[in-house]
Amino acid sequence: MKNVPTTNVLIALRNILEYKQKTLPSVIDHKNNNRINSVGDLLEYYVKDAFCEVSIGLENTDDKLKKYQQTFSYLGNSNNPPDFIVRHGVAVEVKKIEGKSFNSIALNSSFPKNYLYNNDIRISSACRQCEDEFGGWSRKDMIYAIGNVSVNRIHSLWFIYGDCFCADKSVYEKVANKIKEGVLSIPGVEFSHTKELGRVNKVDPLGITYLRIRGMWGIEHPSAVFKSYINYDPNHTNIYVLMKKETYDNIDQKPNLQKYIDSGVLKYENVQIPNPNNPAKNIDAILFTAIL
C-alpha cells in the first residue's frame, strides 16, 4: 500500500492564499515565554505552518510542535539540511533574504540539491532514519523555500523544486573532488578527508597547525534565474511555485485552486524551462504565481 503524504506544496499554496498570509507569524517560545524575533526562524515557522494548516494561528512553540509531529517526519537542526521533511513527502530547506533584492542564496557547506539522498554525508542520522518505521527512504524531492523579508513583511516567497534549477549531484561532487585532488598533489602536504572539502595537517614545522578547507556554496536567486517568466510586484507579496509537470502530475492530493484563479489572485502556467543538466534542452514545468 502506497504511503501518501497528508500535505504538499499545492496545499501549502492554498493555505497561504486562504489565510492571506503576507506577514511573518507571531511565535512565543514556550521555554521562556519570550517572543521569537529572528526573521529566519519566523520564516521557517511561516513555511511549516503553510504545509501544516492546523498550526496556523497557534503562537506557543510547544503547541505548534504537537501539530508538526502529526505532519512531519523530521524537523531539522541548524547544522544540517533540510529544515523539515513531510512524512512520506518532500524535504524542504528554508532560505531567508533580507529586503527586496534578489541576492544570491548562501548554501554554506552543502552544494545545491536537485534531490535529497539518504546517503548524503551532510544529513543527520535522525534525518536518514526518520521514516524507518515505514520502510525508510532513499531519495526525496527537494523544495527550496526562498523568502525575501523586511522586518515581518514578506515581499516574495518561492517554493521551487531542486530539480528545476539544480544540476545532478555528480556535477558538484566532481568540482569538490578536483579541489581535493589538487590539494593532495601539493608536495609535503598531509591531507585528511572530512565532511568538509578536506583538512591539511601539520602545516608548520612543529606539526601543531592544521588548515580546514571549507566549501561555501551559493546559488542565484530564482527570481533572477527565471526573471523572464515572472512579473514581480514590489508593492505586494509575491508567491511562486515552480515544479516539473511530471512532478505536478504525480501529486496525489491536489486542492481546488480554481476560485483563486477566477478571482485573479493566482495564475497557473505551463512553461518550458532550461534543463539544469543540459540547457540546450527544455523541460515541461508548471508555474503558479500569486499576488497578495
Strand percentage lies at 25-35%
**Please, how many domains?**
2
Global Rg = 21 Å
What's the overall average pLDDT, rounded? 94
Model regions low in confidence, pLDDT < 50 over at least 5 residues? none
Question: What is the rounded distance between the termini?
Answer: 39 Å
SSE run: HHHEEEEEHEEHEEEEHEHHEE
List strands and helices in order, with pairings.
Elements lengths: L8 H11 L19 H13 L9 H11 E3 L9 E3 L4 E8 L6 E4 L6 E3 L7 H4 L10 E12 L2 E9 L7 H16 L5 E3 L5 E4 L9 E3 L3 E3 L2 H4 L12 E7 H6 L7 H5 L3 E10 L2 E14 L1
Parallel strand pairs: 3-6, 7-12
Antiparallel strand pairs: 1-2, 2-3, 4-11, 5-6, 6-7, 8-9, 9-10, 12-14, 13-14
Helix pairs in contact: 1-2
Describe this structure in words.
The two termini are 39 Å apart. This protein is of the alpha+beta class. The strands form three sheets. Strands 1, 2, 3, 5, 6, 7, 12, 13 and 14 form a nine-stranded mixed beta sheet that branches. The chain has a three-stranded antiparallel beta sheet with strand order 8-9-10, covered by helices on one side. Strands 4-11 form a two-stranded antiparallel sheet. The chain is 24% helix and 29% strand. The chain folds into two domains: 9-168 and 217-291, no CATH class; 174-212, no CATH class. Helix 1 crosses helix 2. Strand 6 and strand 7 (153-161) form a beta hairpin. The protein contains eight helices and 14 strands.
